[in-house]
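Quick one before lunch.
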Amino acid sequence: MLVIWLTGIPASGKSTIARALAEKLRKIGLEIEVLESDEIRKVLTPRPLYSDEERDWFYGKVLIWLAKLLFKHNITVIIDATGHKRMYRENARREFGKKFIEVYVKCSLETAMKRDPKGLYKAALEGRITTLPGLQVPYEEPENPEIVINTEKEDVDTAVRKIVSYICNRRLIPEEYCSKLDT
Ligand code: ADP
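Model of the adenosine-5'-diphosphate complex:
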């Protein structure tokens, strides 16, 4: 029904918000699938290279193709992926048009490095990984995201409320779902 891409540097809060958003949208009756790039990559790229070529293939093609399959069956897809090149997200925008919502999950590099729940920044600083977006390769900020969440100022509940309000206010899903929000 919709494709919502949560983008932002590692540890900005994408997965945390994706989980809470999925729970909220399921409660009002939507069918939800979260495409968590790290999880899908474990299967498709068990020995990931994190090279430009592999990322172009995965984020530019595979992820969007998976979203397309689910979207076709009226499922609302939450993409939880940094997708550091603007081009990846623009490909998705072209594919899904008005049904695409880009959510920029924003926080400073300093905060992300302090949080580091997956140890990625530590691994980068120790030289165990070499192409971490935001630190070692550029993260291309969204130019016109539908929604910006600053996770240094807005908590998870606020983030979820902001996204759901956007969807309902713009009537991107039928009213019958939004009317269940207060119950
Ligand atoms: P990402 O998926 O972007 O790599 P995660 O969601 O895995 O990031 O990690 C973000 C970390 O930041 C978590 O430990 C989470 O608890 C914490 N955090 C602190 N404040 C927020 C917030 N407002 N929104 C989301 N996560 C937050």
